[in-house]
């Protein structure tokens, strides 16, 4: 068997390909950003053709950097930004329009109707999700309504729907020339169209969104011993390599953090934040604003489920300070700038650019900076942005504790923002529990590689994967209980100021 496994990580702002060995050690990576298209307020789009081109370029780049060929890979796994919605022509491979990104809020009126007329209760009962602009079913309904070509093509079976995993798998396996049209259970569980218990598309839910069933991909487990398909030798891999895993990015990070036992949790800090608590084979219904979702389904095993707290804007707030306001020149500058002041000077920044996700689910909310005086500087704003990441995580942790009855005693953190030591210290202070980061902080790609390797027999069991996990750094709380609770009370007051800004 070849000595390496590859992982294609198609995220919200960039795409990377990473190569790992048997010890789970990174051998090489190549990463490229892609364009964030913002046609109007609340709309966020990506060019699917650019996403595919970036995928090809990073695969080639990583193999070249490692001095490897496609034949040196035992298997490839894919992980992806989850709810982003692509519709394309089966015959030509041409997308009908730009992909609608998970952050996009154009479906707020549809969501309001679903909530008010009782359909929302059915969606939550079957799919585990509250009606929200976040999920891909509403985005697909919007495309079917606003792109005249799509509905008749979908009813003929010529228009295909998929999240980014489906789009990349289809292209890697040949595109118009025999490409496979599939998704996995984790990505399907983010659509509002799949029954969580049956792990299949639900006819009633499809009817709520008026979606032709022929547009939908086949749902497969997250890791498989019989490959989804093989990459084409004429494609970027340059060989026939088995595609044996696909997971939504946050579920992949759960695998990468080896959270395989019920009660184990991880928090990924990226464009947004996503805290997942493994609930095993039990479907746990949240009463405190969390999502019920599929965590993963490994080969020859039942699905494992999770409670999830999804936060729309965390690391993206740092990008906003950089790109829109020019407060910092690079994302990494936020740590030094925020660290130049002892606190926020009473300022709070609630980055509700896409409304508020868990545990509030308020699509009528919009971003706000409150508590300002003439004393405040750009350093205070930078620190408030870091604190916003941490306070939003506390919102979710408190909801998870209320739902599960289990108090958190350690937070496993991963993702790009964990490189910011000040932010991780603030997280420990605001939660009042230690925060630890693994040696491999980019666990989304690692999790996709682990799942692919399990499917291909590269690794024998999850116990073998657990032995690979190693802690890199730990932060312990330094705030007093009074400081922690006073700070959080101010945060909750600031959040309330964002409600009701948009009429829906």
Structural notes for this entry:
By secondary structure, the chain is α+β, with helices and mostly antiparallel strands. Helix content is 34%, strand content 22%. It is built from 16 helices and 23 strands. The strands form seven sheets. Strands 17-18-16-15-21-22-23 form a seven-stranded mixed beta sheet. Strands 3-2-1-5-14-13 form a six-stranded mixed beta sheet, sandwiched between helices. Helix 1 packs across helix 6 and helix 12 crosses helix 13 (421-431). The longest helix is centred in the last third of the chain and has 27 residues, at 378-404. The protein is globular. The N and C termini lie far apart (56 Å). The model has no long low-confidence stretch (mean pLDDT 94).
Concise synopsis of the structure shown:
With 504 residues, this protein is of the alpha+beta class. The chain is built from 16 helices and 23 strands. The strands form seven sheets. Strands 17-18-16-15-21-22-23 form a seven-stranded mixed β-sheet. A six-stranded mixed β-sheet has the order 3-2-1-5-14-13, with helices on both faces. The chain has a two-stranded antiparallel ribbon with strand order 4-7.
* Number of separate strands: 23
The fraction of residues in strands falls at 15-25%
The major sheet is characterized as:
7 strands, mixed
- In round numbers, the mean pLDDT is 94
Strand order of the largest sheet: 17-18-16-15-21-22-23
